[in-house]
Amino acid sequence: MNPIIGIGLIAIGSIGAASFYVPFKKVKSWSWESYWIMQGVAAWLIAPWLFAYITVPEGSLPVILSEAPTKAKWLAIMFGAIWGIGGLTFGLAMRYLGIALGQSIALGLTAAFGTLIPPIVAGENLFASKAGILTVVGVSIALAGIAVIGYAGILKDKNLSAEERKKAVKEFALKKGLLIALIAGLASASFNYGLEAGMPINEIALKYGTNPLFQTNPTMIFILIGGFTTNFIYCVYLNIKNKTYTDYLSVSGKTFLNNVFFTFLAGTLWFMQFFFFGMGKSQLPPEMAIFGWSILMALNIAFSNIWGLLLKEWHGTRKKTIVVLIIGIIILILSTFVVSIK
Fold this sequence. Notes:
Shape: globular
Distance between the termini: 13 Å
Number of helices: 14
């Protein structure tokens, strides 16, 4: 096990997660609900099955899934469904706040709840060991970085006129976005609960010779089935309510293929965060593995804000605001290295 390698692998996944919303800018003539569920087909149905199939020993996936405890599978699906609400509102948070601010707030809450709740529920005293104390310290530093980025968002809101905000983020709505980001953060933490509930599935995968780097891949099949179900129901509801179900057939063949390509690219980038997260977490010492979730979320926020800068979401703001933002990003990145302290 090597914590630095683990952090590096998680960082690769974070780049994918922070980048997944960018391809949506290339989607044409489709409503949000149409392109959101299309990327979900790639991210939550195709990718988990495909990556699980190619990363477990040949022919063993059906056996692993059939032997996995029923309780673990249903708990993973249940937490996945709750996470699906978070994933759904997560997309809306970025829709109303932009990639930078939306991901910062939602993922900040996800980091805190997803990291701290599982050991608390398990009855662990986080202050009884060095690893537990480092976990609390790391999460606290990450939250401090998120608070700094949030402050940068407030400064941005004050700096820009209503017209400039709309130019940076077309549907910018601070109050609505903050409420949705809060819901997204609370619900999204359930993905980590699903990973914890799926540990017995991991053990079956290891029993049949799966490389420890890929042990979580079969578990993610069940978590993402739950997540897809929640999102599918809501997006179909919106398709019917807004009469956007014609999106898929009303565009030209060229536009349809363009939209499928970019939504599937977005979905694949999204899935890569958990593919590399599972690999990275396996490289963390057992007593530090709990902090892996916080590392993922912190790096997601850092990279999403870097994308926000590149996409000029902060264009027109004062230098002081940009400096505050960069300080927040640096704090977040530094928080991830707490896990490597000996």
